[in-house]
Predict the 3D structure of the following.
Amino acid sequence: MTRKEYLVKQKEMGRHLLGVFPAQYPKEILWAMNIVPAEIWDPPLEITLANAHLQPTICSVVKLGMELILQRKCDILDGFLFPHTCDSIQNLASVINDYMKTEKPCYFFYHPKAPYGAAGRDFYRNHLKELIGSLEKQFGPLDPDTLKQRIHQGQKISALLTELYDLRAQGELNITNEEFYSMIRHGEYLFPDDFIPELEAFLSQNKGQGIKGQARVVLSGVLPNPPEILTLLDDLGVRVAHDDFLIGSRRLLVPANDLDDPFENLTESYFAMPPCSTKGSSIGERAEYLFRLVDATGAKGVIFNVVKFCEPEWFDIPNLKEELKKKGISTLSLDTELNQGLSGQMVTRVEAFVEMIG
Amino acid sequence: MKDLGAPALFRLQQMQKKKRPRKPNPHLGPPLKCADRLREIMTRHYYLSRFVKGAKPVAWVTSGAPVELLRVFDFYTVYPENHGALCGAQKLGPEICSKAEDRGYHPDLCSYARIDLGHAFSGKTPAGRLPRPDLLFCCNNICQTVLYWYKELSHYWDVPLIVFDTPFNFKDIQESDIRYMVSQFEEMIPRLEKISGRKFSDKRFKKIISLGSEASLTWGRVLATMKHSPAPMTIFDAFVHMAPVVSLRGLPVSLDYYRILLEELEDRVEKGIGAIAKEEKRLMWDNIAVWFKLRDWSLLFAERGFNFVAATYTNAWAETIHYLNPESPFESMARAYSLVILNNNMDHRLKLMEGMIRDYRIDGLVILSLRSCKPYSVGQYDIRRLLGERLGVKTLVIEADMTDFRTFSEEQIRTRLEAFFEQLEE
């Protein structure tokens, strides 16, 4: 079933649909309100209409999101949620809410920026309640018990994803890089009732010895797009042993906690997430995180696959590369546009990099 | 801080410089007398900064940060954005940016940040020398870029970074937002005491708030003189004369300066002295200045009788200052600093611009789409459309950078400007 068919079916089942822009948001709250978050990262569209609203120097995540709305491909949705991820998404949210009159409610979710103090935690906890308050006006009251149940499902998903990542890190998954991310990314629109069994089935079907002696790399950036980067690595016999993707480990591998209060639980989860450029995490924290991924997997190099004009990512890269270099870890950075494939030059650079670490 | 003989040295330097008097331009009005005083103040500021290390704690501060709190602890403040503008005006942008690019910083990143990082790596600056910071103080009310940029500096120099996080005002500011910001101030105080070695004083804080508030209000009055026709100054003047309200806010010198500037402008209004010889059309500017084009463009527009009399950028240091109240310093500071144009929703920005267009009787609007500044630029195409629909104001959008002229297309922009001039002259 395609993503679109799935969302139509969910709507027919009486669930609400919210288009969610990148990146971090409390999805458990939406699930508890019978809302399916349909995340909008890189819809496969040609950017035409959005060029009348956005400058050429704006990243394609933002442009594609706006294009999706302008091409009226969001008509099925009941509204939009914009987490505060960067300046461009912040303004995109405001342009859509104030200027474009989509006739769909727009919600905004601000998360505090690092370095965090106690004030940040209090703010986040209160902000969760404010988000619920505003969603309840459209979608009806939230049942506290359902929220707890959805939090358990969220933890279950995190545990399954962690198992999946760990197996991959140890070379015990018999799948390609492309298959791995295709599976992971189903979580961008599947309701947990459907995603959990799919993940379980995937794990049981694909546990097994991977190809021995494969070269290993860690990928970093926002998301694995253009997808050709994954197929190229597959073709070159390279395993993506771990990732530091915003779409991946930075928000999916959340350490479990057993706090009974749902707001304490969600707050703890947010602040326990791996470091991220969009949250203002320090270079030191981010470098430590990359070292851990490299050490745990035996990867020989890190490839930064970064969306063109993505400021939060590009600012960190020189220092991260420097820190990795000090530890003898090779790096490569690619400046990519979403859905535009890899240029011949990029392919050559990746091939040369693989040869070097091989 | 004692002057360390700085004024005498300035005078000596000035005497040594053989300045050829600039021929008066027939399209411009008489120059502002205050300009010499401004030059003296800013030169002194940068001059003293060379010797401040050890005498005072030094903080590098973002332009929209609540500096009043730092003044209580007697920090000597350096504004990298102001320094970036200085480098831009002296056409040093590409040279210093390239020092950061050599270290791997992408040329698509904000050029103020690249200049600052380039300066940190190379020491290159037209200001002689900038003191190394003891503290980096960053407020994301102007952009998230400053957060990414300052954490790079913090890592490079191993210097503490304090972030004042201001939630974006998507609809209406919430009490929880205010509480969050007030709590952050409370959390900062012990850290600032430790870094500076000085104790917080509530009495001093209130006095500084009053001083800063009065300086910004006076700056607002300075800008408001341009509502008169002919306007006694142009926005190109204001781009230069805004330096004290950005860099010296909360210090007596800033208020003193704007009082004398206001006096001079009011005198010009009374005598009907305009900033340009013949003010035919009144224009508004949206965004930061293109620093390396300031003089060229001031003449280009003046030759045609076009005077820029308002700008969203210069207005930003006056717009929300009325919230500041010494009786509730933290709460009022949270409002004043989080409701600034770039941290506020697009509906607010549109209404603000509509109000300015009416108040200043604007005939044409120039929108600078700035590749360095996403929060200023995303939404500008829609602003152009909506202002055109609502007010019928003639608008030009140009694409450029504020300091890095490697991306500046002289011919293309010149052609667009000529077409805009024709439109205005119709």
Observations:
- The beta strands of chain A are 16-20, 35-39, 79-83, 106-109, 215-221, 238-245, 301-307, 330-336.
- Chain A has 14 helices and eight strands.
- The mean pLDDT of chain A is 96.
- The CA atoms of residues 169 and 353 of chain A lie 20 Å apart.
